[in-house]
Specification:
Elements (H helix, E strand, L loop, with lengths): L12 E7 L1 H14 L3 E10 L3 H13 L3 E3 L1 H15 L1
Parallel strand pairs: 1-2, 2-3
Helix pairs in contact: 1-2
Length: 86
Amino acid sequence: MNVSQNSPAADAEIFVFGVVTEYCVRFAAKGLLERGRRVALVIDAIETLQAEEGRKTLKELTSLGARLVTTEQALSALDRATTNFA
């Protein structure tokens, strides 16, 4: 997806979740963060293969600017965004 920095989508926060935290989630989130995007990791919708590596990955991503949210918080943000958009 190629989003112009001047478009409304450029300010959108992207929610990242999935398996496996230290691989797929890490690479997706890090790539977005490196491109200046706002990223939220849905912590109750990710899983790790190795607990210690998962913790290190979350620490790395939050140090790069990602924030941690729950599924409930992500759904609430989506609801607010669609209400404000309508």
